[in-house]
Amino acid sequence: MAKLYSKKKLAAQKMKPKKETISFLLNYSKALSIHKVGTSSFEIIAN
């Protein structure tokens, strides 16, 4: 069993996000606004 965990992978797969994922994250970041009131901060998502 110990040998299974000690073996290194030959090559790591390069993972690329889908276009839909990138679009979702960009739209989410555009809609997110953070307002600070005193010592508190509020996160508001404008849909």
TrEMBL record:
Q: What is this protein called?
A: Uncharacterized protein
Q: Which organism is it from?
A: Flavobacterium proteolyticum
